[in-house]
Amino acid sequence: MWNTINSLKEISSEELDGQHCSLQESVRIKYASNTEFQRIAKKLQLMEDFKANVPRTGYQGVVQAACMEHRIYIYNPSHALISLAFCGCVGLLFLVLGCALPIYNWYPLFVIIFYILVPIPLTVASRVQDRVSAGGAASCQEFALFLTAGIIVSAFSLPIVLARSPAENPVIHWGACGFALAGNITCFFTIAAYFYIHREEDARYGLF
């Protein structure tokens, strides 16, 4: 279901102008507000479907068009951002728990540095690749992915190293290390999901 939706061509509500009930394929239509949502519904003659409370899953809605034999997938990216914000908060909660519990200390917070650094290589590469040749763009992407992988590995390595050294009295406990690793998984998943969702919206973030 989700792979099918994500593989569809994406168009904005403005691109519907002049295409009233003339779309020849299933598409994803992006909208940013309830007003725009209602305008799309009116344009595609879908108001009866909306009044019938057609079920919607997550931020990607599935609506059967009355005037067409195929489906129009309408989604609101702001709903995805809310979900990503929640996931990011959960990741930071894991990290804080690894620091704030009575027997732990605040050294695991150093992994936040890697959270800040990890989007930078891909963001810079996405801005630069439009200004270089095809070969240069590929090299730029590969180097950005290499740096990103190094940052991610470092984020996971730091808590483990702190939990193992020195051997007699480690800097952090293994419990704190576990919380930090759980926070890493959640936060990096959130960052990757953000890049994936917005890969076509701003400077071709589709490096994932």
Automatic annotation (TrEMBL):
EC numbers: 2.4.1.101
Catalytic activity: N(4)-(alpha-D-Man-(1->3)-[alpha-D-Man-(1->3)-[alpha-D-Man-(1->6)]-alpha-D-Man-(1->6)]-beta-D-Man-(1->4)-beta-D-GlcNAc-(1->4)-beta-D-GlcNAc)-L-asparaginyl-[protein] (N-glucan mannose isomer 5A1,2) + UDP-N-acetyl-alpha-D-glucosamine = N(4)-{beta-D-GlcNAc-(1->2)-alpha-D-Man-(1->3)-[alpha-D-Man-(1->3)-[alpha-D-Man-(1->6)]-alpha-D-Man-(1->6)]-beta-D-Man-(1->4)-beta-D-GlcNAc-(1->4)-beta-D-GlcNAc}-L-asparaginyl-[protein] + UDP + H(+)
Pfam families with a match to the protein in the record: GNT-I (PF03071), Vps55 (PF04133)
Names of the cofactor(s): Mn(2+)
GO biological process: late endosome to vacuole transport via multivesicular body sorting pathway
Pathway in which the depicted protein is active: Protein modification; protein glycosylation
Subcellular location: Golgi apparatus membrane; Membrane
Function: Initiates complex N-linked carbohydrate formation. Essential for the conversion of high-mannose to hybrid and complex N-glycans.
PANTHER family: LEPTIN RECEPTOR-RELATED, RH04491P
Protein name, per record: Alpha-1,3-mannosyl-glycoprotein 2-beta-N-acetylglucosaminyltransferase
Species assigned in the record: Trichinella nativa
